[in-house]
# Entry
Amino acid sequence: MTLVPFDDRDGSIWWDGRLIPWRDAKLHVLSHGLHYASAVFEGERAYSGNIFKLREHTDRLIESGRILGFEIPYSADQIDEACRLVLAESGLTDAYIRPLAWRGAEQLSVSAQQTTIHLMVAVWAWPNLFGADRMKGVRLGMAPWKRPHPETAPIRSKAAGLYMIGTMSKHAAEAAGFNDALMLDWRGQVSEATGANIFFVMDGALHTPIPDCFLDGITRRTVIALAHKRQIPVIERVIMPDEMAGAAEVFLAGSAAEVTPVRQIGTLEFAPGPITETLLRDYEALVRLSPDEVRTRLAA
Ligand code: PMP
# Structure
């Protein structure tokens, strides 16, 4: 696969209130966000021209910044509008949307009180993360890193710094021939993959870890709502790694990953099955609806 470098592409990027040519969206190397990871972001998908759950993503972006101690200088309406504008400008109807807020270069020390908060939104084509492998199911290796205790990291924030252990874990998994890594938390409980939440089908019910030290994903919540619609019981609970062998099916859920079956975790093998397939198809159908139809469909 040839990678097109992200700094050498055509198109426009929304940066601090205006669209600028993609290649001009450059940052000074002495930006606080780069040195101290004072950055938060979102990962969203547009389907048939609509950004799925846009307001939820925007609200989480704003909240992620607040958790890190900064206020993004745009309202939720303005951020939504920026995402829609840059999507329209891209000419794409199915795309990945990446808003990012970061601290600027006014001050370069642990203290960052004088820094300005910037916001950018970029859009690109990004077919499902696991591509052609998706229906067959992906293979997860066990991560060498643990999701941290909530008192040791801002776990409710989609903060750039939290992805450091994600990249290291994913690289270790890829080096061992897996597609992604399954992370345990600091207690040794099952938590999530490096960029998606995890679900297990056990005795006809969905079991998923309690999101008390990792993101309670927007897709996770959507899948839970879709399962309720199908009268599939959902149990949020502590899941220990040795219980995974008892799962009939396993899948991941995330904005980029969508609903993706898992066929292997370490030495355990799973066959993608009917509950995963039903929820995968329900999710695929849901994301194609208009925002109003999505609300109606998910309403109790
Ligand atoms: N966990 C992590 C670490 C993630 O990066 C993501 C993707 N944002 C998720 C879970 C799933 O979140 P969502 O469904 O809101 O995209």
